[in-house]
Amino acid sequence: MNFLENLEPLLKAFWYIALPVSLFFILQTILTFTGFGGADADVEVEVESHDVSDAPFELFSLRNLINFLLGFSWTGISFYDVIENKSVLIIVAVVVGIIFVGLFFFIIKQIMRLGENNSFTIDKTLNQTGTVYLTIPEKKSGRGKIQISINGSYHELDAVTENEKLETGSIVRVIGVDQNALVLVEKI
User: Fold this and answer.
1) How many CB atoms lie within 10 A of CB 119?
2) Quick one: three-class SS letters along the chain?
3) How far is Cα 132 from Cα 159, in angstroms, rounded to an integer?
4) Long-range CB contacts (< 8 A, 24+ apart) of 93-97?
5) Domain extents for the chain?
6) pLDDT, tens digit only, all 188 positions of the chain
7) CA angle, corner 108, sides to 102 and 109, nearest 5?
8) 122-187 placed in CATH 1.10.340.30
9) Are 75 and 92 contacting, i.e. CB atoms less than 8 angstroms apart?
């Protein structure tokens, strides 16, 4: 810490903020990746009862304070000799600190999206359109197959119809589902 003694007061302040905040950030990152509590500490409470896309952003949290101070202090140190006007330097450092907080929020939101449940269930086919893959006999007298896209993935499902015979290539809408992965369709 002897190198800080001869520095100007503003630069010294940036260093006094940067060193402990950087150490805390590194420690927090290590704990996050080893699973000892960091990643979900600020986010889990917020997301617990909400859909990820509706999760509120906790603006005043320890993690956001660390991110802000990290961006603020290192920007101040990095641009201290480049930006002569110290008021402008402080404004730039504050803006970069805010960007760090926003960047962290964006990254966490993207990570939380990885946890979304996109598994296929037969109920997701209701009111969706598909294409007849194997001819479906009329009036539930036999089964055919349809191809349907759910969440970007194609599925082949057994299908029946209450009306006329549906030829291969017909466009259909699912109007009912069965527990046995059987869908009731009608021609569009």
Assistant:
1) 7
2) CHHHCCCCHHHHHHHHHHHHHHHHHHHHHHHHHHCCCCCCCCCHHHHCCCCHHHCCCCCCCHHHHHHHHHHHHHHHHHCCCCCCCHHHHHHHHHHHHHHHHHHHHHHHHHHHHCCCCCCCCHHHHCCCEEEEEECECCCCCCCEEEEEEECCEEEEEEEEECCCCECCCCEEEEEEECCCCEEEEEEC
3) 9
4) 93/14, 96/71, 96/72, 97/67, 97/68, 97/69, 97/70, 97/71, 97/72
5) 2-113, 122-187
6) 678 888 999 999 999 999 999 999 999 889 878 877 544 444 443 434 444 444 455 778 888 999 999 999 999 999 999 999 999 999 999 999 999 999 988 988 888 878 777 788 888 999 999 999 999 999 999 999 999 998 888 999 999 999 899 999 999 999 999 877 899 999 99
7) 90
8) no
9) yes
> By CB neighbour count within 10 A (0-12 exposed, 13-18 middle, 19+ buried), where does 16 fall?
middle
Which amino acid, one-letter code, is at 107?
I
pTM for the full predicted model? 0.55
The length of the chain, given as a count of residues: 188
